[in-house]
Amino acid sequence: MHIQQLSVFLEDRSGRLTGLTRILAEHDVNIIALNLAETTDYGIVRMVVGRPGLAKEVLEKAGFSIGLTDVACVNIPDEPGSLYQVLKILTEENINVDYMYAFSNRDVALAVIRTANIPAMTEVLEKRGVKLLSQCDIYQL
Questions:
Q1: Under 8 Å between Cβ of 122 and 72
Q2: Which is nearest to 113 in space by CA: 56, 68, 71?
Q3: DSSP bridge partners of 9
Q4: Residue, of 28 and 12, whose pLDDT is higher
Q5: CA 9, CA 32: separation in Å to the nearest integer?
Q6: N or C: which end of the chain has fewer CB within 10 A?
Q7: In 27-93, where does DSSP find H-type helix?
Q8: Residue 16: how many CB atoms within 10 A of its CB?
Q9: What pLDDT digit, counting tens, does each position of 20-48 carry?
Q10: Residue pair 47/8 in contact by the 8 Å Cβ criterion
């Protein structure tokens, strides 16, 4: 079980992130999660959005460089040690995490995880009882 993440390359210029979010708002695309990593010349925005196909289409038309990547989103209790338990499972199965970003809201924590083999990761986590969010849980229908 996986979802799609948009990776958007942004020039390091004032207003580029604002423009990106404006375009998504104008097309009724909800941003579920967002991570921004920067270097000296550009930034990479990784986003889970409600309509990834539409978001990719409208952002490309506006001149943004976009990639769609499969990721997993785990749903864990918002308590100490929950993330450790998920990462411990992956380590035990020799699954390396390429990157991740996480957030919590009251009783629930969500972590978006990218590995080289998403199907293997999701299979291992599901077998060990870790709840994964599906496209139906995330996407705007």
A1: yes
A2: 71
A3: 44, 65
A4: 28
A5: 18
A6: C
A7: 52-61, 82-92
A8: 17
A9: 999 999 999 999 999 998 877 788 999 99
A10: yes
User: Which superfamily, per CATH, for 70-140?
Assistant: VC0802-like (3.30.2130.10)
Beta bridge partners of 37: 44
Stretch(es) of the chain classified as CATH 3.30.2130.10: 3-69, 70-140
Check residue 126 and give left, alpha or beta (phi > 0: left; psi -120 to 50: alpha).
alpha
Contact predicate 116/98, CB 8 Å: yes
Task: Decide: 5 and 68 in contact? Cβ < 8 Å.
Answer: yes
Q: Sign of the C-alpha dihedral, residues 6, 11, 12, 16? A: negative
The reported pTM is 0.87
Q: Give the C-alpha separation, 68 to 3, whole Å.
A: 10
Range 3-69: architecture per CATH: 2-Layer Sandwich (3.30)
Round to whole Å and give the CA distance between 122 and 135: 13
The label of the residue with tokens 């404006």 reads 22
Asked if 112 and 101 count as a contact pair (C-beta separation under 8 A), the reply is yes
